[in-house]
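Format notes (please read before filing issues)

Several people have asked whether sequences and structure tokens are stored in separate files. They are not. Every record keeps both together, in the order shown below: the sequence lines, then the token lines. Line labels are part of the format and must not be stripped during preprocessing.
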Amino acid sequence: MPEIKTANILVVDDEARNVKLLESLLHAEGYATVAARNGQDALALAVAQPPDLILLDLLMPEMDGYEATKRLKADARTRQIPIIVVTSLDDRATRQLALEAGAEEFLSKPFDRAELNVRVRNLLRLKEYGDFLVNHNRLLEEQVQQRTAELYAASRDTIFTLVRAAEHKDEETGHHVRRISHYCRALARALHMPTDYQETIFLASPMHDVGKIGIPDHILFKPGPLSASEWDIMRSHSALGAAILAGTSSPYTRMGHDIALNHHEHWDGSGYPNGLKGEAIPLAARLMQICDVYDALRSRRPYKPPFDHARACQIISQGDGRVQPGHFDPQVLACFEREADHFAAIYDQHADT
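Then the structure lines:
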């Protein structure tokens, strides 16, 4: 690596003759300099115009070199700037205190010009390597963020393609899956779930009924009540959806698998396909369940007309024979009731046309 000839060095000493001597020696080597007369001024200069290296006297008024070094190393803006302590004190205790404060090198007065040049050059090289690593790490972080965004977009496109396939099977529910995403994210946010959980459930929830791809049309679109055998086939869509989404490493399809399999389970154990009860049901499925019920009540189906918002909320909160409050996680139900107006706004914004 070529020697650094354009580095900027901050010289800190309360004696003007010492500053003048150091600056003349440094200028002879091609370095630029700026001077401060005490530690307080050095801190201000180091923040305003970060130098590549600091030559710092220990014994100064207002703020000595020990305190200045500690503060420079405690500040993230100046922590990476190497410091050479330059002092007439040459005892072991002084060296130890300076190094403990954070100084990288120690130079005794009167100093040797050759020794000064070597130590300055070596620390500037160290600083250059440090800057290279910081910039390299920042570049890597930017690349990771870009790749993460690309993977997110790819996962989203894959999910939406899969969901569109399910929508072609049941065109009346086309806007249903879009609303479900917004309901689930709103409910997760109201429950103070982490941001990444909110975004994951936003993408995972539309896959809840992907298993309906495998349900025969004469059952899926039957306008009247299903027979016992037809109902068994209809209920199999949960397991079919889980099978479609199983075995992937994506967090979206993993959550989608849990939702597809369990979103018809009930808190009181009366749901299907496995009769899970309480917290044995994955949280994402518990959130999905109440969102799915609300939207189904608001929407037209082959077996029912659409209900308005007030009636849908009443059924969820009080029951109607088919839907019971005991089906829902009490905490999730209470959160839904607090967020009911938000659900109504989402439905209106993404209403079926």
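For reference, the curators noted about this record: The beta strands are 8-12, 32-36, 53-57, 83-87, 105-108. The chain has a mean pLDDT of 86.
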